[in-house]
# Entry
Amino acid sequence: MYLIEPEPRNYELPMDLSAERQVLGILIKHPTQVDRVVGRVRPAHFLDPAHRRIYEIILDIYNKQGRISYTQVYNRLRTDSITDSPAELLIPLTESFVSLSELDPSVEILLHKEGIRRIAQACDAIKALALDPKQDDIEEVQAKAQELMFAASQSVDAASDEAKNLLEVLNKCYINLLKRREGSSDAYGLSVQFPSIDGMTTGFKKKDLIILAARPSMGKTALVLNMAANVAKRDIPVLIFSLEMDDEQLGDRIVLSELFVHKEGNEHAVTSAEYQTKLSDEQFAVTQKVFNELYHLPLSIVDKRGLTVAEIKARARKFKTENPKLGLIVIDYLQLIKPPNDANRSWTLVVGEMVRELRDLAGELDVPIILLSQLNRGVESRENKRPMMSDLRDSGNIEEFADVIMFLYRDDYYYPDTAKEKGTEGLVEIIFAKQRKGSTGAVQLRFIREYTRFIEEYTK
Amino acid sequence: MGEMDRTKLIFVDTCRNLVELGHLSQEEYDEICDLLDHLEDYDNETFKAELSRISKGLSDLIG
# Structure
């Protein structure tokens, strides 16, 4: 995990041998209590190696449905050659407790001490990492340090890993059904305010990884910026990782997209060319109005190139801590994420691992993540240039980990003259090639290229 | 309560040593462990009788 070994500790790791003996003594004397602790207490919670081994034996006998007793544990210690004098190890346990009520407080002590030990050990690892002369990227060091501390802070309480019975699960489903019946806003996923997309998805779900893939310049960034702005307008924080465009480029695109809204029937409408050159006083006033509308939107941009998945995760976690109501994360785009230094593995596996980690991040932070992805040229060798799932495979093992896969396709991208003749210029197909919690299919939007704005086709 | 468990452990330890010295067979040792695990099911006389059944030498030891 770290490149140089940490210095030998100059402190004693926190432990409570008395609590360890009490827990073991009670479990051997009252084996039915093993059920109560087995989901919470791990062998690692016992710092004393002999105690840890005794607990492992207790768990092993328990799992094999054997009888837990001092003689059984004694025989296992003898058989496993852990010690020549098992009786010396076990006799203190027989005198370690007075009553069963000591079990819960002793378990709490073990959990507390082990939590402190993990944090102390993480601090040692962080110190070694920070002082490693080979580490010269401060941001990478910060990202790794944050990951180490985050991992150390995670509770090992396995309560959330317990199996849930069907009644519990169906209760949750029923509550969601009632919310939908009442039209409650939190009954659905995150609306992006494009009715055709929302109709397919019923809103992007928390914990989902949504892939939005297309050939370059098809409009992926424009679409996702439109969606992000629509979400932010409802006062829901959005975080965008832009590995290609800088913050000002994105800012200009967002302003341009909003200028389109002010275009209709406005004699002082601002065109894209005018925005980027010179505005009249009246046009300037219109543009200022758009800026004023956008200033307060809770939309944050990280425009750093060459980020690794670890750095993205670290920044996203920090942002979520500061903005608990974070509703959406956007990453533009997958192929620009810096991969780990692992020359031994195939590119497909490396990319798949990165996508899996981002999916896990969505689960951890309880938000949907939209990850943009380029498609390779293989699409263009076909007569029908609409993207398919197989086009993603060349980019890595992506489809396996995505909850939703959307492709963009524009006829006018490949056949501009034909599209002009047919009047289908700007018509975009959003192809839902995969959707774990919904149907597949396609919807249409219209792309107003000049303003990098998508609109519903029926509003044209 | 702890005193009984302590005694059982010392007794099992002694029996194990007897196995290693050849004075007790492994089968006798296993039966003794099983007897100790169910000690609460026996009164004193029954326990001695069972122990005698398993190994006369041992029951003579505890008189």
